[in-house]
Amino acid sequence: MIRRILMTLTVLALLTPALSLSAQRSGCIPVHGLTRSELAYDGGERMSFVIHYKWGIINADVASASVSLDTTVLAGRKVFNGRIFGQNAKKFDPFFKMREDFRTWFTLDGLEPRRFTRDSKEGNWFATNEYSFDWGSKQIHAALESKSKGPRSMDLPLTDCTFDVLSLFYFARNLDFSRVEPGKKYPLTFAVDDDICNIYFIYKGVEVKNIKGIGKVRTRRFTVSLASGQVFGEDGGAAGDMWFTDDDNRLLVWFDTPIRIGHIYGRLTAWDGAKHPFDALVEPAR
Predict the structure, then answer these.
(1) Is the alpha carbon torsion for 229, 232, 237, 242 positive or negative?
(2) E strands, the chain, where?
(3) C-beta atoms surrounding 75 within 10 Å
């Protein structure tokens, strides 16, 4: 269940999709320009989250996740390097130890993914991904391994609007709200494991959200809808909601999603290195 919680955070964090003005990607969703100077973030940004689980008498923080962005050099080219690392609360380690580590490398301008890795462990289960994005052949070369399937390699289809789960998060945070219609479904595509996943988001509008430890924050709310058979089961349908700051940073501050047993929500607890002022704060916590 903990792995599912952290995958929920990862997927929900992805969902503010985009279209590059510096490198037009037909079929994607409209964003502001994607040159480095126009982005909602830069290297050095950090975010921390607490993930809470509620079911019956259980009402507790069960996991945490950190999201970081740096710059590095890959194949002689300066790129962004993003990471999300999640783990269950340490008190659960003696009974059930879980770690999720996602990393992505993508270009500074245009945010084109170049490499992606995943290293997941939950109890005695494990899975790893190693993706190389080959834009010349329009393929993702994948080296995969898991406890159930063992080591394997394959090629996945690559389109101008296909991402790994983490590069999509960063690509998405540059959405042009003036060009997105409330209530309309917008499709997204990302690769994880040996699948190409299809999801949708629906923009709900502006809300003031009270975030524990931060205060009242002006946000943009989105609902996530999953295509049938993708990520969370065979039925598709609504996966949950998320709230991003209504300022130039587009920080994820809250997500909320039901699961088959219980309910999950997560909240931003700390951030550092934001590129722009935190103008979405309406009233600080007391």
Answers:
(1) negative
(2) 46-55, 58-74, 77-88, 98-107, 113-122, 125-134, 139-146, 150-157, 162-164, 185-192, 195-211, 215-226, 237-245, 252-258, 263-272, 281-284
(3) 8
Residue 11: both structure tokens together:
């997927």
> pLDDT tens digit string along 143-181?
999 999 999 999 999 988 889 989 988 988 888 888 888
The pair of three-digit structure tokens given for residue 255, joined into one six-digit string: 């997500």
pLDDT at 227: 60
pLDDT at 281 over 70: yes
CA atoms within 13 A on the CB side of 181: 4
d(CA 205, CA 216): 16
- Provide the CB-side half-sphere exposure for 43 (13 A, CA): 14
DSSP string, 120-149: EEETTEEEEEEEEEETTTTEEEEEEEETTT
Instruction: Tell me phi and psi for residue 9, to 5 degrees.
Output: -55, -45
Query: Residue 249: which pLDDT band, with cuts at 50, 70 and 90?
Result: very high
Helix, strand, or coil (residue 100): strand
Cβ pair 118, 128 in contact under 8 A: yes
SS3 state at 160? coil
Cα-based distances in Å from 45 to 35, 65, 156, 249: 17, 14, 31, 10
Report CA dihedral (69, 45, 100, 241) to the nearest 10 degrees.
Answer: -120
Stretch (H or E) spanning 10: helix 2-12
Q: Which of 173, 215, 222 is nearest to 45 (CA)?
A: 173
* pLDDT confidence of residue 25: 46
